[in-house]
Structures are given as structure tokens and as C-alpha cells.
Amino acid sequence: MQLFALVDCNNFYVSCERVFQPSMEGRPVVVLSNNDGCIIARSNEAKALGFKMGDPYHLNKEKIRKNKVVVFSSNYALYGDMSRRVMDTLEGYARDVEVYSIDEAFLNLQGFEHRGLTDYARRVRASVRQCTGIPVSVGIGPTKTLAKIANRLSKKMPDAGGVFNMLETDADRMLEQVEVGDVWGIGRQWAGWLTEQGIRTALDLKRADQKAIRSRMTVVGERIVSELNGISCLPLEMAAPPQKGITVSRSFGRHLSELPPIKEALLQFVSRAGEKLRRQNLMAQRLTVFLMTSPFAAGQPFYSRSMTCRLILPTDYTPDLIDSAVPLLEKMYRRGLSFQKCGVMLLDLVPAVRHPVDLFDGRDHGRQARLMKAVDAINAEHGARKIHFGDIGWNRPQWAMRASFRSPRYTTRWEELPVVN
Amino acid sequence: MVSVLSIHPPAPKKPFSRPLFLSVVAAGFPSPADDHLERDLDLHELLIARPAATYYVRLSGDSMKDAGLYDGDILVVDRSIEPSHRDIVVAVLDGEFTVKRLCKRDGLVQLQPENSRYPSITIGQERDLVIWGVVTGSVRQFKK
């Protein structure tokens, strides 16, 4: 029989900040999205005050001040590193670990003794807490879907101590307490239809007629029903599926009307997209650039354009990507408008080819590959943007992201190590 | 007649790389050292037992100077080790970080500085003490 554990970190971003600022324990804390836009993480104390996921920061400043809520800008350098540490710690506790997101992982516990699984899960929880300072919850079940539900229950039941094992309870009684929309893979639309059919809880879905489910919700829905019945249909995914497209874009820290700073921003995004492309050993055959003003700006009409060009010779060479992207931007730019955001999308991705693709391909593939390899290596070792192409602004470019409350990058920058007396 | 007693899958291990040749064989002179291949000395390997649980912090002040830890030193801190009596630890006291020598004896817990100008701290029931990690080493640079 298959056995899965779903381990997920509690309030991950907030927990990362608390490891290095322990005085934040017990206090209401929120973390803001890129550009300090909206709330993307809350401590339990902040949840209790009524702050919701996605609440815009500027609409909640007064409530934050009144309740003495501590605000952090997102510090992805820190969160990424802490995530790596959590996942590394988990590796020692299972045959395979599937990193599902920045703060969740599935463990393959097949072959483990059924007795003592809950104690084992408690040891995993304690170990992660000790090694990284991050509190996690563990749900155990014979399928991934049931492990996910068990994880949810471990958080809802205060006596569970952060661990819940589906195998040691009356599963049906538990599934009865879970709304069908909260089952992994059941989105809002399907939840709506299911409720109409009288299927309101996970237990109802477990007992539903599989043929009827399949006809409306395809084989995906049928798999969910099987999983709820303890039949594992979703194996651990050890390799990420190949990407269909790479998009890099950001809102500007403040609105921009001049072309040069917007071009600077686009060059940064194209460089980053190129890095991601090369990391996966892919080349792009189509490139899209988009540019827009803010839909909420008073005094000007909403302007949003995108243009696409084919890259006849598939490429991962940043100078070529830049040469294609910049003219598109120049065509879309308009004087007199105040822009909020631009971005680049690399599409029609194919595995990288390092030889001429046709008679007219006169590129020096070897040289291009060596150049990009050297640039990537230098940027990796000395920090991003040490070497860049073209006119990318130094220091504080006009378009740079707002991050007024970002904590130090405690684990990835020598200059930003925690200081102790 | 050979019979199969049991079959074991190979244990998955991290790849162990060895240099293929230490020296290029030129004009028929192989180096006598080739049979004694060694890896480069790696400070990371020396200082860090469990990378996922190891952190660097920077020391400020002179409260630990008699232990050879000075202002500006980088301390290597391992969170996975159970703290023992006489270990130098990073502790969280009333929400603040501090580095001191841990003394646990006869049910009494004390945090001791290594500098006569600083007082020892006795941890009573009412104080909130958490050991953040054990200092396993330090790094000091004289010239950069």
C-alpha cells in the first residue's frame, strides 16, 4: 500500500522572519507582495485581527497602525534559502521527497511500519523545527489527496499537535467535516456544480458515482474520487514538467513616462528570462513584449498593448532576445502616458540546439554558448547583474521595486548576517 | 552451481568524484604522486557538519573575548546539536540574541560571558530562554 505525508510550513514567510527576529513571536505580523502591494502572509495573530490574504496594504495602513501589526516586505532571498533547508532536512526522513511548492513537500513513506507512523511524523516535525526554526504540520494518508486533507485537519484540531494520520482515525467521519471545495483539485467551478448535485462534503464525493463524475469532470475528477477512496493515482513527481513559456515582468516602483527607464527595466526582464531559459536548457522561438498603464489611473485612458515576433532561429542568447524585444517596446511606447508595467514572454520553447538549424544559420553557436556560460557564472558567483547587457541602470534605477520593509538577507549575504552580542 | 541468495538494489548515494588524472602525461613521465590522489582542502567541509542546520552570525562586542571570540568574528552556528554543559551557544533571551557559554548543573541554568567586565545571567523560572544553536567554530579575517 502507498503511504504519503504532506508536510507544509505554517505561515511560512512570517515564520522565516521570526527565526531571525524572535521578538516577533506572538505578535501580529504580515508580509507584503512585490512592490509592497498586498498582504501575502499573516501570522495567526494577524489572522485573528481579520486581515485576509490579498488585502491591499495601502487600504489597511490605519488598521495596521492601530493594532501595532509588524509589516515586512517579501524577502525571497531569505525564503528561498530557508525552503531549501527545510527540504534538505526532510530528505533524511523519506525514500523520496517531492517539493510541491516553496513551503510544501510530499514524502513517500511506502514501506514504513504503519504502527508508529504518527510518532515518526512528530519526529520529522521536531527535527525541522530544531534545524531550521520553522514550524510545520504533517498529514498522513494512503493517497496524496488524503494526505492533503489530513494536513488541513492537523491545523484545525488543536489537540493534534501538528500531526494528523488518516489511517488512525475514522476516515469517513473526518471527510464529512471537509467541504467539497476544500478538496485538493476541486476548484470553484466544480465545487459549484457538485454542490448543486447534492455533493457537499469530501465524504459525499468519495461515495459519488465515478462514471457520473468522469463525464462532467473528466479523468482528473475521477482520479480525485479514487484518491479519496484510498486508491493512489498520483505518484510522486520527481521531475518538474517542461515549461511551456517563461514570463518575466514587474510593476514599476513608480509610474514611468520616459522611454529610457522603461527600456532599462525591459532589459533586466529579458536578461532574467534568458537566464531561466538557459538553466532549463531550452531555446525560444517566439517572443512577446507587453506594456501597460494603470487601469486605475485618473486622467488618462487605460492603455495596454502587446506585440509578438517570431525568432526564426531558436535562441537562448540574450543579445538576440534583446535585439528582438527592444524594437517591439519602441513601437508600443506613446509620449504623454504614464506607464505602470512591462514584461517579456518567451514562448514556443524547444530543447537547446547548438548546431546550425538550417543553411542560413550563420551564428557562431560555440562562442555564443561560451559567452552566456561565462556571464551566468559571474552573475551567479558575485550577485545578480554584476555583468549585464546594454544600458541597465546602476544602484537605484527609477523603476526599481518598492520594498520599504524588507529584512536583511540573513543567510545569503555576508554583509547582512544576523548580529549577536 | 551458483545460487542466488539475495538481491539488493544499489543504495542511492551522492556521486563521489575523483580526478581522472592529476597530471597530463607528457613525453612519457607520469608523476609519482598520481597514485596518491587527494581532494582539495575545503573549509566548508571542515566547518560545517549539517549544511541545512548551519548558519553564520556576526559577533558584536567583547563579552566573549576570553574564549577567543572577538568583535566582528563570524560564528558558525549549528542548530541540530543538543546543547551541552560548557557549550558556547547563541541564545534568545527575552526576544534578543546573545552569545554566551552555557552552564547546566544541578538543575541550574546560567549564561556566562567570557569577560570579567560582564555579569553572569542566571535563568530562573520566569525568564524566557531558548537556545537558538551551538557555536561550533569561528572565522576571523585579518586581511581581505
Verbal overview:
The complex is a heterodimer of chains A (421) and B (144). Chain A is of the alpha+beta class and 421 residues long. Chain A has 13 helices and 14 strands. In chain A, the strands form three sheets. In chain A, strands 5-6-1-7-8 form a five-stranded mixed β-sheet. In chain A, strands 9, 10, 11, 12 and 13 form a five-stranded antiparallel β-sheet that branches. Chain A has a three-stranded mixed β-sheet with strand order 3-2-4. In chain A, helix 4 (76-91) packs antiparallel against helix 5 (117-132) and helix 11 packs antiparallel against helix 12 (318-332). The longest helix of chain A has 21 residues, at 259-279. The radius of gyration of chain B is 24 Å and the shape is elongated. Chain B starts with 42 loop residues before the first helix and ends in a 5-residue tail after the last strand. The A-B interface holds A 22-23, 25, 84-86, 88-89, 127, 130-133, 410-411, 414, 417-421 and B 50-53, 55-61, 63, 74-75, 79-80, 90, 92, 95-99, 130, 132.
**Structural class estimated from helices and strands of chain B:** mainly beta
Overall 3D form of chain B: elongated
Distance between the amino and carboxyl termini of chain B:
68 Å
Order of helices and strands of chain B: HEEEEEEE
Q: What is the alpha-carbon Rg of chain B in Å?
A: 24 Å
Strand portion of chain A: 15-25%
Mean pLDDT metric of chain B: 83
Largest contact between chains:
A-B, 21 and 25 residues
Q: Output the structural class of chain A.
A: alpha+beta
Total strands of chain B: the figure is: 7
Proportion in helices of chain B: under 10%
| Alpha plus pi helix count of chain A | 13
